[in-house]
Structures are given as C-alpha cells and as structure tokens.
Amino acid sequence: MTVQPVVVILGPTAVGKSELSLNLAEQFQTEIINADSMQLYQGMDIGTAKLPPIERRGIKHHLLDVYPVTQTVNVASYQEQARAVVSSLRAEQKVPIVVGGSGLYITALLENLKFPATDEFIRAALEQRLEIEGAEVLHAELRVLDHITAEKIPVSNGRRIVRALEVIEITKEPYSATLPNALPALTPDLRIGLTRSRADLDERVTFRVEQMWQQGFVSEVESLIRIGLKDGVTASRALGYAQIIDYLDGEISEDEAKSETIRLTKRFVRKQESWFRRDPAVIWVEADSPNLVETVLNMVNELR
Questions:
Q1: Which end of the chain is more exposed for a tag (fewer CB within 10 A), N or C?
Q2: Contact at 8 Å (CB) between 70 and 232?
C-alpha cells in the first residue's frame, strides 16, 4: 500500500493559505488538518480568521474547535491528535493536507519531537513565583540552570520561562536537552510555503483586522469573556483578543485596540516568516503566482 505524502501549506498570517488548501483538498478529494494553535479554541472564530462552515466547501476540517477558551493548549496533545488524523487518512489512501501558521505545531507534527511531562504542582509554584517575583528573576535563574534555553526565551515571556524551569525540575536536566534535533517522523511530506511582498502582506493584515472589527470581533470577545476567556492563560493572550480585553477593561480606546492589533499582527508575521525560513525542506512559492494549484499538484503527484 502506498504511503500518501503529508502536504503542508504554511506561511504567515493573511498570506492566503486557506484558499490553496481548499483547492487542493477538492482536487485530491481529501480532508484538511488545522495547524493554527488559536483555531483549536471553541468560539475564537472572527479573531483567528477561522473559515466558517459555509465556506469550507463541504470539506471536512480536523482539529478546529477542540478546546474551551479556559483550557491551555498543549502542543504535545496536538501532536498526538494530528498524527492520529494523518494515520486515519493514510489508511483510506487519502492525502492529508495540513494548513496553518503555527510553526511549533507543524514541527511537532512532522518531526520526531518529544515533549516532557508536566507537573501541576511544580507549575503552580512557579507561576506563583512569576506573579510575586517577576519574569526577570525567573529568567536569571534559568540562565544559571540552562543558558542555551535562556538565550532563546525573551525575558518578557514568563509563560515559556515557567515551562522551561518546570521541565528542568521534573527531568533534572537542562530544558534544551529534552528537545533533541529534529529527525524525520512523518515521511514523505511536502512543505509548501506561501510568500508575498512585505508591502502586500502589511496591506492584507490591515484589511483583515478592519474586516474583523466589521464582522463583530468586539462582540465575540465580550461573549467569550462571559464564559471565562480571561481565565484562559493562552486564549486570553491571543492577538486581538488581548487588545480588546484591554479596551473593554477601560485601559485603552477601541481605536488603540485596533491599531495595536494591526501593529502586533504585522510583527507576528515577521516572526512566522523567520521561523519557517529556517526550515530547508520548505519549498517557497508566490501566493499569487499563476497556476499555483497545478504547480503544487504536480509536486504532490511526484511523491505519490
């Protein structure tokens, strides 16, 4: 039995990944696997640009609306669930199509990354220290225990600092030692990276955020707050959601929330591009290139 290749459509926010994934899924009569960490959350629709069911062309989408906003997304759980879907589709001789812009989630799916266990008591103690002592103190501690990891985690990212210290406490090893160099896990795979000019992407980001506001983004956040959004460690910090929460709390104006969402999304786009550019396996194509679908179809068929 032929092992069907995993086709991954990746790239920064607003580059045009969804359209290509839908076109490919139609051609291969297959299904799509989400690789956007925020689209895993139930009810986070407008702010994550989640395709509404009516626009999915009847194509089944996996790993959308998995978690309530009060739950913290776990990349290890995503890895397990996504691989299970890939195995199921391959068993049916279907080409799994993965689409998203969350680099770590895509890497976890494709590569042989192992994620250390968690300990709720150690985590709770570290989070309490973070609140009382601050991120700088914990980052300095991490620098002593594992300077390699400390160099990769900004002082401002308290959540990642806590996770690294938690793993060090559990494993009694540096955090960097628990994340070995990536080795192929799901083969064959085809990684298609979509790209656009910086000016084009910036314009698309601005247009997308403006559309989100028109579609009722603020109302969406208000409804999610009523079911516990502020208690969600990850969901409440998502781009746009965090800014609207600040607006609703009276810390900034609505115009400031929108402009800050645009600014931070553009910055996030740069980070996504930087992450994906480090992967030599990614084949980059212009998102608006003619015959894009046919080009990718030919690449896939060469692997089948």
A1: N
A2: yes
Please tell me the distance from the alpha carbon of residue 75 to that of residue 83, in angstroms, as a whole number: 12
State the Cα–Cα distance between residues 297 and 240, nearest whole angstrom: 35
41 with 188, same domain: the answer is yes
Decide: helix, strand or coil at residue 62: strand
The 10 Å CB-count burial string (b at 16+, else e) for 229-265 is beebebbbebbbbbbbbebbeeebeeeebbebbbebb
pTM: 0.83
Measured over the CA atoms of residue 83, residue 114, residue 17 and residue 194, the dihedral's sign is: negative
Among the listed residues 196, 272, 274, the one whose alpha carbon sits nearest the alpha carbon of residue 239? 272
Q: Is the dihedral of CA 110, 114, 118, 122 positive or negative?
A: negative
In a domain, 12, yes or no: yes
Helices (H), 12-95: 17-28, 75-91
Provide the pLDDT for residue 177: 62
Residues of the chain below pLDDT 70:
177-184
CA distance 73 to 141: 26
- Looking at the DSSP assignment, which residues form a beta bridge with residue 97? 7, 32
CATH assignment at residue 163:
1.10.20.140
Same domain, 276 and 210: yes
Could you tell me the end-to-end alpha-carbon distance of the chain, in angstroms, rounded to an integer? 11
CA dist 20 and 89 (Å) reads: 19
Cα–Cα distances (Å) from 196 to 80, 114, 145, 304, in that order, read 32, 33, 41, 28
Structure tokens at 41: 């959350």
252 to each of 163, 208, 226, 255, 262, how far by Cα in Å?
A: 30, 21, 20, 8, 15
Strand partners for 191: 8, 282
Alpha-carbon 90 to chain mean position: 23
